[in-house]
């Protein structure tokens, strides 16, 4: 029996025929499972020359790589689709989006479906498998443990769940949703997360700007229930922190955990300046490491209130660690005018280049901030400078920007250490865009 459907070029549908039997040269696990589906599964066919990129694992199928879409009616956002090469042989499957520039987020390749057919074209089972695997990986990494219970459980593409981030703070999991499919599968995701040991509450935080680009009606997301409390207390490397569940991102920057701990190993006897300190992560590590004085600067009053509270709950000497509400640039300019210097300066500004288009302007801002920070670093002292802008990190130009800052400040720098996010933030090498954090430690002369 032959079924005829409509197929149009590129974004449209045009006619084609599917025979109920297929030759051994084109048969595949995904093809067979899709053929058995009573609902039918649409097929996204890639342009010639585009297949290899996705066979190698790149999870984001952009619309420019698509030649045609086979299926009637056309697939809707959030639906499972096959992704096929030019001969219409499936190479994998994923979740479709009719509005996004990324029309498919690949979830499983053909060879993976052969090894694990139970998850093939089955998003519920795949979610359970991937979230379990993510939890197993964190346990291998020693997370959570007696002195650290703040960590990242799911890191989007790094855990093969593009668009889903889950941070865990004590017994609360904070979900950052940035893809339409995540919103569609919210009940299934929450059910999987609740099975992870130690998690009893979930706080769902949609990324509104990104979901708007995914074509979602944001009015439907405004009444998403949140956890029944505003703050939780966690431990990181033995230091206690109050985390605001209404704060920036998911509420706490677990990605800097290993870099914060490093500061504690070099801070003994030092005067430390922490610029853009947020809730005091670097500042507290410096104090615990034996710094003689620590000054934290931030423009956010709620963040500074958290930082001061964190000093109290850790029993630290409030006279040795202080926090000031000031604009970072203004503070550094005024301190430089007074010829103030510190042994260690930490500069961790917010994301200045959210997109590649903003990179040129952001480079100038990073150069100016780092130039000021170098002027405040004692000769022979240490500057730990950071960028959480993915566009900056992926461009590979951050060191060049730093060198320009040194020339502007009339200083010389040498690189002592380069790092990124903590190990619970895995990166898929087939999706290098997942790398966003740069942390570079310099000696300033």
Entry keywords:
445 residues; alpha/beta; Archaeosine Trna-guanine Transglycosylase, Chain: A, domain 4; Transcription Regulator spoIIAA; Rossmann fold; 3 domains; seven-stranded mixed sheet; six-stranded mixed sheet; globular; disordered N terminus
Number of strands: 21
Q: How many helical stretches?
A: 14
What class, by secondary structure content? Answer: alpha/beta
Q: What is the first-to-last residue Cα distance?
A: 79 Å
Helix content: 25-40%
Low-pLDDT stretches are 1-27
Q: In the CATH hierarchy, what is the class of the largest domain?
A: Alpha Beta
Radius of gyration: 25 Å
Strand content: 25-35%
The spatial strand order of the largest sheet comes to 17-16-15-18-19-21-20
Overall pLDDT: 90
The profile of the biggest β sheet is: 7 strands, mixed
CATH architecture of the largest domain: 3-Layer(aba) Sandwich
Overall, the morphology is globular
CATH H-level superfamily title of the largest domain: Vaccinia Virus protein VP39
According to CATH, the fold-level topology of the largest domain is Rossmann fold
């Amino acid at each position: 029996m032959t079924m005829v459907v409509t197929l149009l070029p590129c974004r449209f549908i045009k006619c084609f025929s599917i025979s109920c039997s297929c030759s051994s040269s084109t048969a595949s696990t995904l093809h067979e499972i899709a053929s058995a589906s009573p609902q039918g599964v649409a097929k996204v066919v890639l342009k010639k020359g585009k297949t290899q990129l996705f066979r190698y694992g790149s999870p984001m199928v952009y619309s420019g790589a698509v030649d045609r879409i086979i299926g009637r009616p056309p697939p809707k956002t959030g639906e499972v689709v096959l992704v096929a090469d030019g001969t219409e042989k499936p190479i994998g499957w994923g979740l479709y989006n009719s509005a996004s520039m990324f029309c498919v987020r690949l979830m499983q390749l053909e060879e993976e479906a052969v090894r694990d057919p139970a998850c093939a074209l089955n998003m519920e089972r795949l979610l359970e498998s991937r979230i379990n695997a993510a939890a197993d990986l964190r346990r291998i990494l020693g997370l959570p443990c007696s002195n650290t219970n703040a960590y990242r459980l799911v890191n989007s593409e790094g855990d093969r769940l593009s668009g889903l981030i889950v941070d865990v703070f004590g017994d609360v999991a904070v979900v950052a949703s940035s893809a339409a499919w995540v919103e569609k599968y919210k009940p299934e995701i929450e059910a999987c997360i609740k099975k992870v040991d130690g998690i009893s509450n979930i706080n769902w935080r949609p990324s509104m700007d990104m979901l708007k680009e995914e074509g979602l009606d944001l009015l439907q997301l405004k009444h998403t229930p949140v956890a029944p409390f505003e703050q939780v207390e966690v431990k990181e490397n033995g230091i206690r922190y109050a985390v605001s569940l209404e704060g920036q991102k998911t509420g706490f920057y677990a990605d800097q955990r290993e870099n914060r701990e490093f500061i504690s190993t070099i801070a003994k006897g030092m005067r430390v300046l922490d610029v853009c300190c947020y809730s005091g992560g670097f500042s507290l590590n410096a104090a615990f490491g034996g710094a003689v004085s620590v000054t934290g600067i931030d423009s956010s009053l709620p963040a500074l209130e958290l930082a001061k509270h964190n000093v109290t709950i850790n029993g630290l000497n409030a006279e040795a660690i202080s926090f000031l509400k000031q604009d970072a640039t203004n503070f550094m300019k005024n301190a430089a005018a007074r010829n103030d210097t510190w042994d260690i300066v930490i500069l961790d500004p917010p994301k200045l280049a959210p997109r590649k288009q903003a990179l040129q302007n952001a480079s100038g801002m990073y150069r100016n901030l780092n130039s000021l920070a170098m002027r405040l670093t004692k000769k022979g002292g240490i500057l730990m400078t950071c960028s959480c802008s993915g566009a900056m990190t992926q461009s590979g130009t951050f060191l060049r920007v730093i060198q320009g800052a040194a020339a502007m400040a009339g200083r010389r720098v040498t690189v002592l250490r380069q790092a990124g996010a903590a190990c619970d933030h895995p990166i898929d090498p087939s999706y290098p865009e997942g790398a966003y954090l740069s942390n570079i430690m310099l000696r300033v002369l």
